[in-house]
Structures are given as structure tokens and as C-alpha cells.
UniProtKB/TrEMBL annotation:
Entry GO MF terms: methyltransferase activity
ATP-binding keyword on record: no
Keyword annotations from UniProtKB, A to Z: Methyltransferase, Transferase
Pfam families: Methyltransf_31, WHD_Rv2258c
SUPFAM superfamilies for this protein: S-adenosyl-L-methionine-dependent methyltransferases
CDD domains in the record: AdoMet_MTases
Organism: Aporhodopirellula aestuarii
Domain of life, source organism: Bacteria
Stated name of the protein: Methyltransferase domain-containing protein
Sequence ranges assigned to domain S-adenosylmethionine-dependent methyltransferase Rv2258c-like winged HTH in this UniProt record: 31-105
GO BP terms, alphabetized: methylation
Amino acid sequence: MCNACQIKVDNLDNATEAFAGELLETLNRSAVGQGISLGHRTGLFDVMSEMNRWATSDEIADTAQCNERYVREWLGIMVTGGIVAYDKSTKTYLLPEHHAALLTRAAVSNNFARTFQFFPVMAEVETDIVECFKKGGGVPYEKFTRFHEVMAEDSDGNVVAALFDTILPLVPGLIEKLERGIDVLDIGCGLGHALTAMAERFPNSRFVGRDMCDTPIESAKQEVARRGLTNIRFEVADVAKPAQPESFDLITAFDVIHDQRDPATVLSQVRRALRSGGTFLMQDLQASSELHENIDHPLGSFLYTVSTMHCMTVSLAQGGAGLGTVWGEQLAVKMLGEAGFENVTVRRLEHDIQNNWYVSQLSE
């Protein structure tokens, strides 16, 4: 038992006692978060939702093709955490439907469970991050073994699922242009799920995805080959290097600018690569550039944690600016203006508390 759990709060003053209670709650909820990530990765939430009945740990384990002893212990996390219901008389378990609605892959855009995967991804570099606190510098992308996989899954829910119905329509007439045929570039494309979805939907347009990391680009190439798409290609490239002038009609950046070594130069190269009348569509986190304005943000602590443990540090690892996840709307608009984008509109989607959508259209 850890020492923190043995504190006798009776002798503490009221404020400290209250804070001790908050810390104990945080400790427990953090543990539940780890269990949620496990439930997602093992498919246990999906299995329990599909079973849709009270079941023993043996039945759940057999259906999920998992080891029963591990499943039973995991169920202990979920029951004590209030995620799964338990009938002590029959020793059976049930995932309530209203919980399944937010924890299963069937939920698509509402699946919270996939987001909890970021914590183990970040935890694997904690020792490296501690060294950075002492010596400076950063932790490079290659240290994060599952980052691209988790990020792609997150993108499937908050970008790909909403791409055609709500995101692309933020730019008037864009869908019609894509149907007729235009040139599109996605920078920091990762596994390229969003770009591949567009290439499949708009066969008359031509698509290019660029990312600095080899592994996701190779996976993206394999996927488009499997689908037989001929209007899309993926390239390993530094998007801060000089771009071919006026090469694209649409450039997208889905949650990537703040990670860049030199985000100001990247934005300038985006402006250079756009044709007259072209559009830059940038997704980034919905937050203020001022800390005090983020205190009541529903995702504030999460965003600053992701920044400390990933976004800021991967930029610093390249000797970069280290803007961080919470560079904020004010700075984003300022930097877009400095890059030559005169007309910047910040849009938000009603269902999305996480993202801002920056639409920058050039004059004809």
C-alpha cells in the first residue's frame, strides 16, 4: 500500500483534508483511465456491448479470445470504477448501454476509450521527459512506439467521420471543386486516413500526403495500393523546405502545425504553394493562448499534458520552436497573418469541444 493512501486525514485542517480527498479521487480515476485504454485495445468493451447481457468473466474472456484471469482482474477495475455493473449473486457483469455508447468502436465519433490510449503512449517516454526537465531538449517521434496508430484512430473519429458532412462544407463550394477535380496536399498526414478518404470520394481530384516519418508513410502507401487508388501518393518530406509555388488548390493540416520544428516557415510555405483562389484548411486545438483563459477549459489539463509529453517535446527534439498543443487561437491567427493569409475565419463545429477550424482563402 502506498504511503499516500495511509494518510490519516482526521488530523489535517479542512482545506488539506478536502485536497487529500481530491487526490485520492484523482488516483482512482487515473487508474480507471488505464483500464479504459486496456478495454479498448483488447476489444473487451466491444465484446461486452455486443453480448448485451449479464455474463461471467469466463464467457466474456472466451468471446474476446482473452485470458480469463486478466479479464477478471480488469473487470475489477471497471466495477470499482463504476464503468461495469456487477451482480454478486451470479458473479456476472454487464456493460450498460449508455456506457457502451461512449466506449465502443461502434460509437465512432463519440468513442472516448480510444483517447485514453494517449496516456500509456505518453507514459512510455516519461523517463526521457524527466531528463528533458533537467537538461532541456526533447524526445523525438521515434520514441513514441504507437503514436501514429493512436493518432490515426483519433483522427478517424474527429476528422474522417465528419469530413464530408461538416468539415469540408466549412469552405463554400469546396466539395463541388473536389468533384470537378483539383490538386490537394495534406501536410503532416501520418497514416493518411483523411486524405485517403477524400481520394476515394473524389476520383477526379489529385492528392498528395507528406510526413517526415517513414513508417506511417509506408503504411499509407500500402493502404492506397490495397484499395487500388491511383489519384493519390504519399511522400516522406520536410514540409518546412521551399515548396513549388502555386502547386495546389487546397492544402490541409489536421492537428499538426504546433508540432512542427519551424511552424512559421511551414505556414509561409503553405501560402507559397497555394494557387490563386486556393484554400488552406487547418485544424488545431480549441484553446486560448492565455493560460488564465484555459482554467475552465473542459480539456485543459489533458491538453497541457499532451503538450508536455508529446507535442512540445517532439518540436524541441528537432531544435524547434516548441509551440506546444495549447499555442492557442490568438497566436494561430497572428501567425497565419504573418505568413500572408489575409482572410482567416475561425470556425467551430457544434458537436466538437476539441478543435478550431481555420479557413484561409486566397483571392482569385
